[in-house]
Amino acid sequence: MQKLTQRFANLSAFGMFLILAMGALVTKTEAGRGCGDDWPLCNGKLIPAYTISSFIEYSHRLVVGIVTLILVVTFYLVFRYVKRADAKWFISGTVLMTLIQAGMGAMAVIWPQSSLVLALHFGLSLLAFAFALLLSLVFTPLGQYQQDRKIRTGFKVLVWITAIYSYVVVYLGAFVRHTVSSGGCSGWPLCNGEVIPELSGATGIVFTHRVAALLLFFCILFLYLQAKRQYQASDRLVAGSKWSLILVLMQVLSGAVVTWSMGNDVAYLFTGMIHAIIIACLFGFLCYLCVLTLYDRKGQSHPG
C-alpha cells in the first residue's frame, strides 16, 4: 500500500499545483465572474454555454472537484497505512486549506468580496500546495530527516522569518492582481521613471510590492550566506537555501518581464503565469527548510 499511497500523494501535490496555476489564470484573465453568481452550477447549468471566461472558470472548478476527491483518498491512505505523524499533519493541512479555499471561492461568487479578501485565495492555494509537496517528499530520500548536527537557533529563526515574510510578499502580489494595479508602475527597475514615485493609488500598491520583493531577495541571500558559512556544502540546508536564492532571483526578473510585457495581452498572461509558478516553487523550498529545522538531531524512519 505504500506505493499506492505515494502515487496518490504525488497526484495530490500535482493537483494542488494545477489548482494554484489555474487560479492565477482565472485572476489574470478576469474570468472569476465567468459563471455569473451561480455555484456549483455555471450560469444555472451543469455544463454551461461556451465562452472563454466561463470555460476558464468552470475548468478551474472542475479541477478543484477532481483534486478534492484525490485528497479524500490520500487522506484515508495516509491515516490508514502511514505511521509517520508528519505525513498526517501534511495531508490534514492540505485538506484544510483546500476546503477553506473552496468555501471562500464559493462565497466570492455568491457575495461580492473586497480585494483584501480575494487576495487570500492565492495564499491559501499556496499553503495547500506546500503541504501537499511536503507530503509527497515524505516518500522520497529528501523526506527522511535524520540529522547528525545541531541547527543553531538563530538560523532556525532566520528560516522561519524568511518563509513567513515570503508569504507576506505573495499576498501583496495577489493584492496587486485583484486590485488590477499592475499598470501603476510603468517601466522597471524605475517606477514611472522615478526611484520613489508618488505613493498613492495603484502606483503605491505596485511600488510597495516591488520594495517587499527586493527585501525578500536580500533576506534569502543572507539566509544562503549563513547556511554556506555554518554548514557543509552537501547539507540540505545549504542546497535548499541555494535553490531558494536562485528562485527568488528568477522571481524578481520575471516580475520585470511582466512589467515589460504590458500592452501585449498574450505575453502579459504568459509571463504572469510564469511569475506565479516560480513563487510557488520558491515558497515550497522555504517550507521544506522550515521542516528541516524541526528535525534537529531527530531520526525518522521510512513511512510504513
Automatic annotation (TrEMBL):
Example GO molecular function? oxidoreductase activity
What membrane topology was assigned to this protein in its record? Multi-pass membrane protein
InterPro entries associated with the record: COX15/CtaA_fam (IPR003780), COX15/CtaA_HemeA_synthase (IPR050450)
Acyltransferase recorded as keyword: no
Q: Where is the protein found, in the record's own terms?
A: Membrane
User: Which parts of the chain span the membrane according to its record?
Assistant: 62-82, 89-111, 117-142, 154-174, 207-225, 245-262, 268-295
Q: Which domain of life is it from?
A: Bacteria
Tell me the protein's name. Answer: Heme A synthase
Which GO biological process entries does UniProt record here? Answer: heme A biosynthetic process
Enumerate the Pfam families for this protein.
COX15-CtaA
Which terms are listed as keywords in the entry? Cell membrane, Disulfide bond, Heme biosynthesis, Iron, Membrane, Metal-binding, Oxidoreductase, Transmembrane, Transmembrane helix
Say where the protein is mainly found.
Answer: membrane
Q: Pathway, per UniProt?
A: Porphyrin-containing compound metabolism
GO cellular-component terms in the record?
Answer: membrane
